[in-house]
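F.,

This is the one I mentioned.
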């Protein structure tokens, strides 16, 4: 008991001596005995999640992007003001949404980790733009404002070299730090396209905002038509060339050091395309060249992606065929998992099951496709964790199959 200084009576203490603390529970009686089991239960073993090492970016890259984003926002607000910057950002979201939808279609067969996809867009929108602006400001301080011949060189030489290097560096960092999520040319095109999309988004904010400040709605509409309607995939195609080269390096099992050569070759192709694009706006009839050269180039780009996607499906079929030969899948399941028509039919069938088991079928398809990619990495000897991930994915596909057929 303790004395309450404001009263003449004694009050109970919050921590009586029989309890260890105010939160302790009193013990009224001896606990009941626990009856032991008749038979020792078998240990429960849950399949471990696939190792994330080699499938996510280093934290220092994210930290650098955050710092650059703060500097970039401050620069835009200081040079163009919040109103024009907001108008530019809203307009820039329109072509970005279209590009992201197109890339999602390309990446649908074997989706890349979502965190890496976000990182690719962020690198293009923040780091690549920051590098390009920094070089431009540095050259302006040293050489003065660009005029005449130097203005032409800036558009045809400086911009393609600096911008493609800055964007290509992001693709190379993903290759180097998330090697197990970089399986082949389609993956490289996806990462390169998203880096280019991010760069175009931020660059469009600047173009649209400046047009709004200088010419109001009329000039902004014209700029939006040129950049948002006619050429939303320009930067996407440029940097996708770099990603394609790194994807070939990944397919051949090259190490990070060995991939520098293919990266430089892809970078040269991206720079050439970028320079050609900028030069067509300066030295010729842009719309004529757009129709006669740029449109066919874009069509060829799309056809190339379709061909690569077909090769990806064939590779999935071969690798799942290996597991079918070992008894993990039936031949009918391989047909279902490795063809677009088979997947569509499987999802339609899953919807007819009790409780609509479409989600389970989607998981089964996703894990089986990842299993095929894992085996391919194991065959090329470029993934030390492939065996562990293979065991986990085999356990998951077996469990998902059992859940789908459960009564």
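My design for it:
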């Amino acid at each position: 008991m303790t004395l309450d200084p404001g009263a003449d009576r004694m009050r109970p203490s919050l921590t009586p001596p029989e309890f260890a603390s105010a939160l302790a529970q009193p013990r009224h009686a001896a606990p009941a005995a626990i009856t032991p089991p008749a038979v020792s239960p078998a240990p429960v073993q849950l399949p471990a999640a696939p190792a994330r090492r080699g499938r996510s970016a280093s934290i220092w890259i994210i930290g650098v992007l955050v710092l650059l984003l703060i500097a970039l926002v401050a620069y835009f607000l200081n040079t163009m003001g919040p109103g024009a910057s907001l108008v530019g950002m809203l307009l820039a979201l329109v072509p970005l949404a279209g590009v992201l939808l197109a890339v999602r279609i390309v990446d649908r067969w074997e989706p890349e980790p979502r965190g890496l996809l976000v990182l690719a867009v962020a690198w293009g929108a923040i780091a690549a733009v920051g590098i390009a602006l920094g070089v431009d400001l540095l050259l302006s301080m040293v050489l003065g404002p660009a005029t005449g011949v130097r203005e032409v060189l800036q558009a045809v030489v400086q911009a393609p070299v600096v911008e493609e290097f800055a964007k290509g560096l992001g693709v190379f960092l993903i290759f180097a730090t998330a090697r197990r999520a970089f399986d082949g040319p389609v993956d490289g095109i996806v990462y390169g396209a998203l880096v280019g999309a991010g760069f175009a988004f931020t660059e469009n904010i600047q173009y649209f905002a400046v047009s709004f400040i200088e010419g109001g709605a009329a000039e902004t509409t014209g700029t939006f038509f040129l950049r948002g309607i006619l050429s939303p995939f320009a930067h996407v195609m440029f940097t996708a060339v770099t990603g394609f080269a790194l994807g070939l390096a990944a397919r051949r099992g090259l190490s990070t050091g060995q991939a520098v050569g293919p990266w430089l070759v892809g970078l040269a192709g991206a720079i050439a395309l970028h320079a050609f694009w900028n030069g067509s706006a300066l030295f010729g009839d842009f719309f004529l060249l757009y129709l006669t050269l740029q449109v066919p180039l874009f069509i060829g780009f799309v056809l190339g992606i379709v061909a690569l996607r077909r090769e990806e499906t064939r590779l999935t079929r071969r690798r799942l065929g290996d597991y079918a030969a070992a008894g993990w899948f039936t031949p009918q399941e391989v047909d279902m998992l490795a063809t677009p028509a088979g997947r569509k039919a499987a999802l339609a069938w899953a919807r007819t099951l009790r409780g609509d088991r479409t989600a389970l079928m989607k998981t089964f398809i996703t894990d089986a496709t990842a299993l095929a990619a894992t085996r391919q990495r194991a065959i090329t000897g470029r993934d030390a964790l492939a065996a562990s991930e293979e065991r986990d994915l085999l356990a998951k596909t077996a469990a998902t199959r059992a859940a789908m057929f459960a009564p």
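The two ends are 65 Å apart (CA to CA).

Talk soon.
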